[in-house]
Amino acid sequence: MTEDELQRALEAALPAADLHDVFVEECQDQDVRLRFSLKPGETWTTAALLSLVDTSLRAAAGLAGTLSHLNVTVLKAPYDADVISLSRLIRRAGPTVHAEAWLFSHAVVDPMLHATATLKSSPPLRGNREGEVAAQRTEGA
What we know:
- There is one protein chain.
- The protein has 4 helices and 6 strands.
- It is α+β, with helices and mostly antiparallel strands.
- It has one domain: Thiol Ester Dehydrase, Chain A.
- The longest helix has 16 residues, at 46-61.
């Protein structure tokens, strides 16, 4: 997926409140770099940072995934500046995806938050080839 494709996918999939003026800076293989911006007069709250973590993890692991486990370590308080996230896919095992995200204030130098997560991919729709194969395996078991 290219940066432009991921940008369009994020804008289509996320509610406006979770976008935080997201900008896809880099999208290669299983690594994604996003930049989030504050509106004038706003500050980063814990809820907003968790939203950024969710967006970053989904950008790396797939937007259709459902979060099943999340571990967050806050390393320091955020500055009132852009937040840069680096997220990557750690491991994919069938429908289960393991990913991590790092959040940085303004520049990728000193992290302020680290998160690891497990996401479950949504089951394929019946009627496509993957769905048919999955249905046959289930019925034959």
